[in-house]
Design brief:
28% of the residues lie in helices and 23% in strands. It has 16 helices and 28 strands. The chain is globular and about 85 Å long. It starts with 6 loop residues before the first strand and ends in a 6-residue tail after the last strand. Bound molecules: adenosine-5'-diphosphate (ADP) and zinc ion (ZN). The site of zinc ion (ZN) has 8 residues, from loops. Zinc ion binds next to loops.
Length: 660
């Protein structure tokens, strides 16, 4: 008689909203990390064999297929468990950041994969300056340790940080390891890819939302098989299944865009450090304006620190000046001070380029009725509608709702009475066109520059001096290297300070310092003019003095006594519901049983600054603890006590960055 083949049970984690792994029956043992297709209800889904013991008692169904794909490595599985535990997201949701069924399809046989790998680490880089070489030597030996460590590379804009970290990349490649470089903005990948190619003779793989499905599949496979040696990507690249990761670089580590604000709310910089730990790889954080978190870790000796205090090649740091808008105001209905306009004229006369920075998309942030004061706002969000010149509509930047500009005011019925209030970049572009009719200008904002290809085109126009004036949002602030750009005008230096969240000052300093860093990167010296109605504000003073460590000291002194991050821990709960009363009730129910005790404090509930978002009313609660008290066990115990009705959505945001 034939013996039935021996079966064994396995745990399988599925990339869906479950925290637990499910038990299935397999034909013989399957190693953890193996990708399998299994039944889930009436569907077939892909999952990964997980490390925990299967349930021997439950009724199970068989594994349908073992996929021909590299196993998810152990360090990645540990990482996924850890991220779930830290963010309180179901582990399945975290796995979904790594594993998507669509990515597993094999490329068609005849298709040549469009060449991964091939970086030549033996190619020499540029001759480094003495100080750059010292940093590079330290980084090469750090990488050669092939062990976990974190290093902060802190250097002023244009000091050669990128040049130096490419040396660390080369060192990892020489060990035969893979390298991940995280960038805050995919538009930046264009210049970065060109630099990598110039340095190593091959293009790195890229990973971001603009790839085609075929490119994604091929890249994913190449990363898993270890063929892709360098990956440059946005934060989601952190979850790729690298076969043998030997270095993680987080460029512009202070950038808030590393924080994922929905789904699994993780901070890619912090999680990069965790991933580095699990795969025993060094992590390199790079910035000209390190976050207080990272600066504090360096100060406490938890991170190593390397400094590049001067610009490369004798280029000087730009001269910063505040323009007091009360003393030199713009004309009525205009936004550029005559002093800034004069500086632009001088710059253009020298055949150099000028950049105007305003972190606001569209034409005007607010449109109101001149007769009765009625404001055009979104019916679904606590937000004003923003006018965009490209279309005759006003739109909500939160939910996309849009409205044809009304001929009559809906409140007072006055005709043609709507007026734009305040500037967005489009309105500044209009003012520039009136002032400089013969100068070509270019606007860079996410709604006009849709992806890396358009960003590359824009960058090329700027480099070739086809434009004299660049007007942009935060998109122009980061990383770009434009040698002929010598004047930067910040249209509204006070803008970021109004929000008043925990890091408003820090983020404003970082962003404006970055924008300023675009000026004077080559021989000609740069000049930066900050338009401000409050030039004695500590943030403006810090920018003028250029003493950023002193500013961080001040910030630390403000946050330390109250145990605000990084001197304490913070988690936010965002309770939302379509019915305002239900949102309130749920928030109060949570508040009633909030964790208490020495070193633990609950703040709220309070309406969120955006109290209505996409039709849902939002309430916020904040849990703050001393640094030595972990928030996750408190949160778990807390949330377990309050059964929330179905209509209520609860988002848990550990280490919140946005307080909106
Ligand atoms: P950062 O990343 O600090 O802003 P970069 O690495 O982009 O600085 O360097 C600024 C500019 O100076 C770049 O064009 C870079 O190629 C150039 N540069 C930096 N160091 C050197 C060097 N040692 N030799 C030649 N060019 C260099
Ligand atoms: Zn809206």
């Amino acid at each position: 008689m034939e013996q039935p083949s021996p079966t064994s049970r396995v745990s399988v984690l599925l990339p869906y909203k479950f925290d637990m792994a499910f038990t299935y029956e397999a034909q013989g043992p399957l190693a953890p990390g193996t990708l399998v297709r299994v039944p889930l209800g009436r569907r077939m889904v892909v999952g990964a064999v997980w490390d925990e013991p299967p349930d021997e008692a439950v009724k199970t169904r068989p594994v349908a297929e073992v996929l021909d794909f590299p196993k998810l490595p152990e360090d990645l599985r540990t990482f996924i468990d850890w991220v779930g535990g830290y963010t309180l997201a179901p582990r399945g949701d975290v796995l979904a950041l790594t594993l998507k069924e669509k990515l597993l399809e094999a490329p068609p046989k005849r298709a040549k994969s469009f060449a991964f790998g091939g970086a030549d680490a033996a190619r020499p880089g540029p001759a480094l300056s003495v100080i750059q070489e010292a940093a590079a030597v330290a980084l090469r030996s750090t990488v050669a340790e092939a062990a976990f460590s974190v290093t902060l590379l802190d250097g002023v804009t244009g000091s050669g940080k990128t040049e130096v970290y490419l040396e660390a990349v080369a060192a990892a490649l020489r060990l035969g390891k893979q390298v991940l470089v995280l960038l805050p903005e995919i538009a930046l990948s264009v210049q970065m890819l060109a630099r990598f190619e110039a340095r190593f003779g091959a293009r790195p793989a890229v990973w971001h939302s603009e790839l085609t499905p075929a490119q994604r599949r091929e890249t994913y496979r190449a990363v898993a098989q270890g063929r892709a040696d360098v990956v440059v990507g946005a934060r989601s690249a952190l979850f790729l299944p690298f076969a043998d990761l030997g270095l993680i670089v987080v460029d512009e580590e202070h950038e808030t865009s590393f924080k994922q604000e929905d789904g699994v709310m993780y901070h890619a910089r912090d999680m990069a450090v965790v991933r580095g730990k699990f795969c025993a790889a060094p992590v390199l954080l790079v910035s000209a304006t390190p976050s207080l978190e990272t600066a504090e870790n360096a100060a406490q000796g938890r991170y190593r620190k390397l400094d590049l205090p001067a610009r490369h090649g004798g280029a000087t740091m730009p001269r910063m000046e505040a323009l007091d808008m009360r003393e030199a105001p713009p004309e009525r209905g205009k936004f550029l001070s005559p002093l800034l306009v004069a500086a632009m004229r001088e710059t253009l006369a020298r055949e150099e380029q000028a950049m105007l920075f305003l972190n606001r998309r569209g034409y005007a942030p607010l449109t109101l009725c001149r007769t009765c004061g009625h404001r055009l706002s979104c019916p679904h969000c606590s937000a004003w509608l923003v006018e965009h010149k490209a279309s005759p509509r006003l739109s909500c930047h939160h939910c996309g709702y849009s409205l044809q500009r009304p001929a009559k005011c809906p409140t007072c019925e006055a005709e043609h009475s709507f007026v734009p209030i305040g500037p967005g970049v489009e309105r500044i572009a209009e003012e520039v066109a009136e002032l400089f009719p013969d100068v070509a200008a270019l606007t860079m904002a996410s709604d006009v520059i849709a992806g890396p290809a358009q960003a590359a085109e824009a960058a090329e126009k700027i480099s070739k001096r086809e434009v004299g004036i660049i007007i942009g949002t935060q998109m122009v602030a980061k990383g770009w290297h434009f040698p002929h750009l010598t004047l930067v005008g910040v249209v509204d230096a006070d803008l970021g300070l109004a929000g008043g969240d925990l890091r408003a000052g820090e983020h404003t300093v970082q962003m404006l310092h970055q924008v300023a860093g675009r000026a004077g990167r080559a021989e000609a010296p740069g000049r930066v003019l900050l338009q401000s109605y409050d030039p004695s504000h500590p943030v403006i003073e810090a920018l003028l003095s250029g003493d950023l460590p002193a500013f961080l000291e001040q910030e630390a002194a403000l946050r330390r006594p109250g145990h605000w991050p990084p001197f304490g821990r913070l988690a936010a709960l965002i309770v939302s519901a379509e019915d305002e009363r239900i949102a309130d009730q749920a928030a109060r129910a949570l508040a009633r049983v909030a964790p208490q005790g020495e070193g633990v404090q609950m703040l709220g509930p309070a309406p969120a600054p955006i109290a209505l978002l996409r039709g849902r009313h939002r309430r916020r609660l904040l849990l703050r603890t001393r640094r030595d008290i972990a928030v996750q066990p408190l949160l778990r115990a807390w949330l377990a006590q309050v059964p929330l009705p179905r209509q209520v959505k609860l988002d848990v945001d550990v280490d919140p960055v946005s307080f909106m």
